[in-house]
Amino acid sequence: MQYSKDDIQKEILKAAEKVFLENGFPKASMREIAQEAQVGLSNIYNYFKSKDDIFCTVVRPVISAFERMLHEHHGRYGADIMEMYSTESLCKNLRRYIELLVLRIFMERN
């Protein structure tokens, strides 16, 4: 069976997300990602320039969702934009968002 480029790229990203979650970015390797995605190591480079490129692609939706959440909060509660981007506020919101992501991952696995 032949797979489309989109399907292969999605498998690589899914595998990368799993490897990053299990090992952390520094310990994750392109070889592990390739093995998890069941593609050749050289094939990954047809889709991504580097491990950094894959990581950015994996986290982009998370960052976008986090930014949307901040902007929704700002609009809904009339928060001061400077307060919204303060270190304390960002840490609090990021912590809550990570909790939601972990819950989502846990629910998907069970």
How is this structure best described in words?
- There is one protein chain.
- This protein has 110 residues and is mainly α.
- The chain has a single domain, classed as Tetracycline Repressor, domain 2 (Orthogonal Bundle).
- Helices cover 77% and strands 0% of the residues.
- The protein contains six helices and no strands.
- It has helices at residues 5-23, 30-37, 41-44, 51-77, 81-84, 87-109.
- Helix 1 (5-23) packs across helix 2 and helix 1 crosses helix 4 (51-77).
- The longest helix has 27 residues, at 51-77.
- The chain is elongated, with a radius of gyration of 17 Å.
- The two termini are 30 Å apart.
- The mean pLDDT is 83.
Give a summary of the structure in a few sentences.
The chain is mainly α and 110 residues long. It has a single domain, classed as Tetracycline Repressor, domain 2 (Orthogonal Bundle). The chain is built from 6 helices and no strands.
List the helices and strands and how they pair.
Elements: H1 5-23, H2 30-37, H3 41-44, H4 51-77, H5 81-84, H6 87-109
GO molecular function: DNA-binding transcription factor activity; transcription cis-regulatory region binding
Protein name: TetR/AcrR family transcriptional regulator
Domain HTH tetR-type: 6-66
